[in-house]
Amino acid sequence: MMKLMTRYSLCVSLLIFIPTLTHSANSSTNYLTTQQLWFSQTLDHYSPYSQDRSQFQQRYYEFLDFFRSPDGPIFMVICGEYTCKGIKNDYIAVLAKKFGAAVVSLEHRYYGKSSPFKQLTTQNLRYLSSKQALFDLAVFRQSYQAKCTSSQISESLNAKLNRTKEENPWFVFGVSYPGALSAWFRLKFPHLTCGSLASSAVVLAVYNFTEFDQQVGESAGPECKAALQETTKLIDQKLVTNGKALKASFDATDLRIDGDFLYFLADAAATAVIDMISAVSFLQFQYGNPDKVCKPLVEAKKAGDDLVDAYAKYVKEYYLGDYGASVQSYNQNYLKNTTASEDSSDRLWWFQVCTEVAYFQVAPSNDSVRSSKVDTRQSPFLHCTIWTSAKMYLEKASFLMLIQLIYTMEAPKLLVRNFPCLNVSFGSKIVFTNGSQDPWRHASKQASSPDMPSYTITCSNCGHGTDMRGCPQSPFNIEGNEKNCTSPDAVHKVRQKIVEHIDLWLSECQDTSRSCI
Ligand SMILES: *[C@@H]1O[C@H](CO)[C@@H](O)[C@H](O)[C@H]1NC(C)=O
Ligand SMILES: *[C@@H]1O[C@H](CO)[C@@H](O)[C@H](O)[C@H]1NC(C)=O
Ligand SMILES: *[C@@H]1O[C@H](CO)[C@@H](O)[C@H](O)[C@H]1NC(C)=O
Ligand SMILES: *[C@@H]1O[C@H](CO)[C@@H](O)[C@H](O)[C@H]1NC(C)=O
Ligand SMILES: *[C@@H]1O[C@H](CO)[C@@H](O)[C@H](O)[C@H]1NC(C)=O
Ligand SMILES: *[C@@H]1O[C@H](CO)[C@@H](O)[C@H](O)[C@H]1NC(C)=O
Ligand SMILES: *[C@@H]1O[C@H](CO)[C@@H](O)[C@H](O)[C@H]1NC(C)=O
Ligand SMILES: *[C@@H]1O[C@H](CO)[C@@H](O)[C@H](O)[C@H]1NC(C)=O
C-alpha cells in the first residue's frame, strides 16, 4: 500500500509512512515536546475484564506552555500508524497559542513504544483496530480530565491544577488516518469533544482505490504522465524478459515477488508526484532539486535516453536515498517478522489495511500510471495473504465493504443511543479539509454539509494535510508555514474557516459539557 505521508515528520501520518528515514528532524524545533509520559490503557475495550492481562502502557505527550489555566481548551492531536515521537510544531502550535489551549497527544496502540506485546504474531494483533484506538482516545481523554488522580495516569490535569470539578472543552485534531480517527471520534463520542478537525481524512475504506492512481496522473500533468506511463510499459516488458537484472538496477533484488517489486515502483512514482508538486517552491527558493522524477524522465524522453535507467536513477538517489524509503518494507517476508520494534509499523499498518481499511491503490482499468499488474489479485492483495489464505481473503472482501458502509460519513446514526448524555446530532461539528493535489483526497468526505463543513485547499503544491503542515512538507516547515505554498492565500482562507469553526464550537460547548460528564 502506498503509505500515507510521513517524511521527515514521522508524526505526519500515513498514508505515506516511511519507517526508516535518513533525515533526522531537528527535535528541538520540529516538536513542541518530545517528553514521553505513560498511561495505563485497557487492552480490550470490548471485554475489559477478560482472562488476558487487561492493561498495557501507552505513551502520550503533553504541552502546556500556551494553556490558559485553568479553563482553557484542551486540543487532542491524534497520532496514527507510525512511531509518535512527540507533538509536532506545526499549525497546531499557532492554534494552541490563539486559543490558550493545552495540547495532548496519545500514541496509537501497537505502534512505536505503545505495543501491548513483544511478539506481534497474528494472534497478538487481535486488539489492533481503529475501533479499539477510538476507545483508547476516549479513556485517555476521561482520565486526563479525571476529577481526581486515578491509578491510570501519572497526573491528571485536574490533579495538577488542584481542583475537583472542572471540565475543560476539548477539540480533536488529526491528519490522514488520524484525520479519519478524529472524525470517527466525534461521531462515536460526541459528548467527549466539542468538535473535530479531520484533515485529509481517509474516512472511506475504498476497496479498489483506483482514483489514487488517476490523481497521480492528473497531478503529474500530461507530459510527465506520458513519460511515466511509457516507463511503466518498458518495466513491465523487462520484468518478463530479464527481471533479475531489472530489479538489480533498482537495488531491489530482495523483492523476489514481481508484485512486490511493481508496488514498490508505483509508490516511488506516487511519492515523487506528491513531492514533484512541491518542487515548484523548491526551485523558486533554490531549496533542492525540482521536478525530481518528472524532469529527468521528460528530459530522458526528449533526448531518446533509456527511460528505465533514468527512473532507476531517480528511485535510488531520491526515493531510497534522500527520501529514505526502504525496499524491505515492500517485501512480504519482511512483513512476516513478528518481533515488535520501531520498524514494525509496516506489518501493523498492513494488518489494519487487510482487516479494516483497504484503500488498495490498484491500477484503474484504463490509462493507469502504475502497472496494470498492480491489481487486487497482485501485490496489495498478496500482502494480505500473510494473515489468511487467498480464498478466505477474497471472501472477506464483502466484509470490507460492510466496514466501508459503517465508516462512510453518511452512515446511519447507530451509535447515538449508547450515549445518554448526548445532545448533539450524530455527525456534526467536524470540519473536513483536503489538498487539491493529494491522491488521498478521493477517500475523504465527498460533500460539504452545514454540520460538517468541508474545504479543499487548491494550489499546485497543496497536498496531504496542507492545512496543518503547510507546503511543501519537506523539509518540515515550522508551524506549517503557509508562505511556501504556491497559493498562500488559499491555505490562509481555509485556516481562517477552521479557526472560526473551532471558536464557535468551543463557545457552544462550554455550557453543556460540564453538566454532561
Ligand atoms: C536545532 O535547532 C536549534 C535551534 O534553532 C539549534 O540550536 C540546533 O543547533 C539545531 N540542531 C541540529 C542538530 O540541527
Ligand atoms: C489544594 O487545594 C486544597 C483546598 O483549597 C488545599 O488545602 C491544598 O493545600 C491544595 N494543595 C496543593 C498541592 O496546592
Ligand atoms: C475490485 O476489482 C476487481 C477487479 O479488478 C473485482 O474483481 C472485485 O470484485 C472488486 N472488488 C470490490 C470490492 O469492488
Ligand atoms: C525481525 O526484526 C527484529 C527487530 O527489528 C530484528 O532484530 C530481526 O533480525 C528480524 N528478523 C529477521 C528474521 O529478519
Ligand atoms: C482511456 O483513456 C484515454 C486517455 O485518457 C481516453 O482517451 C479513452 O477514451 C479512455 N477509454 C475508455 C474506454 O475509457
Ligand atoms: C438539548 O439541548 C437543548 C439546548 O440546551 C435543549 O433545548 C434540548 O431540550 C436538549 N435536548 C434534549 C433531548 O435533551
Ligand atoms: C476531497 O476531494 C474529493 C475528490 O476531489 C472531493 O470530492 C471532496 O469534496 C473533497 N473533500 C473535501 C473535504 O475537500
Ligand atoms: C519557505 O519560504 C521561505 C521564505 O518565505 C524560504 O526562506 C524557505 O527556504 C522556504 N522553505 C521551503 C521548504 O521551501
CATH topology of the largest domain: Rossmann fold
Name of the CATH class of the largest domain? Alpha Beta
Which structural class is indicated by helix and strand composition? alpha/beta
Q: Could you tell me the radius of gyration in angstroms?
A: 22 Å
Q: Total helix count?
A: 16
Strand order of the largest sheet: 2-3-6-4-7-8-9-10
Strand content of the residues, in percent?
A: 5-15%
Number of DSSP strand runs: 10
What composes the largest sheet?
A: 8 strands, mixed
Small molecules bound: 2-acetamido-2-deoxy-beta-D-glucopyranose
Compute the average pLDDT.
Answer: 77
The N- and C-terminal alpha carbons lie at a distance of 40 Å
Number of domains: 2
Outline type: globular
CATH superfamily of the largest domain: Alpha/Beta hydrolase fold, catalytic domain
Fold and architecture overview:
- It holds the Pfam family Peptidase_S28.
- Keywords: Glycoprotein, Hydrolase, Protease, Signal.
- Belongs to the peptidase S28 family.
- GO terms for molecular function: dipeptidyl-peptidase activity; serine-type exopeptidase activity.
- It comes from Arachis hypogaea (Peanut).
- By secondary structure, this protein is of the alpha/beta class.
- It folds into 2 domains: 19-42 and 54-118 and 130-204 and 425-508, Alpha/Beta hydrolase fold, catalytic domain (Rossmann fold); 206-418, no CATH class.
- 41% of the residues lie in helices and 10% in strands.
- It is built from 16 helices and 10 strands.
- It has helices spanning 27-30, 91-99, 130-144, 157-161, 177-188, 211-220, 222-249, 258-284, 294-303, 307-322, 332-335, 345-357, 379-384, 390-407, 466-469, 488-516; strands spanning 31-33, 37-42, 55-63, 74-78, 87-88, 102-106, 170-175, 196-199, 430-435, 454-457.
- The strands form 2 sheets. Strands 2-3-6-4-7-8-9-10 form an 8-stranded mixed β-sheet, with helices on both faces. It has a two-stranded antiparallel ribbon with strand order 1-5.
- Helix 5 links the parallel strand 7 and strand 8.
- Helix 6 packs across helix 7 and helix 7 (222-249) packs across helix 10.
- The longest helix is centred in the C-terminal third of the chain and has 29 residues, at 488-516.
- The two termini are 40 Å apart.
- The model is unreliable at 1-26, 272-290, 401-425 and 512-517 (pLDDT under 50).
- Bound molecules: 2-acetamido-2-deoxy-beta-D-glucopyranose (8 copies).
- The site of one 2-acetamido-2-deoxy-beta-D-glucopyranose has 7 residues, from loops.
